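Page 47, continued from p. 46.
Same chain as before, 69 aa.
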Amino acid sequence: MSNNQKQLKRSLNDRMLAGVCGGLAQFLGLDPSLVRIAYAILTVFTAFAGVIIYILMWIIVPEEKNIDF
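Result:
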């Protein structure tokens, strides 16, 4: 695997709960607020299936590493 490849990671800096939406926003190159709004709307319209998806992503997606220099 090359180092230039983007990887989905949960955000350490841009998080409200677990960093899933912040990490997804970084991965897609979008504003985190837009991702959170889209997530909330999709969750409501999918009978709250988004809650289960969020919890699964919290468990499966690794957290980005804290690099202190």
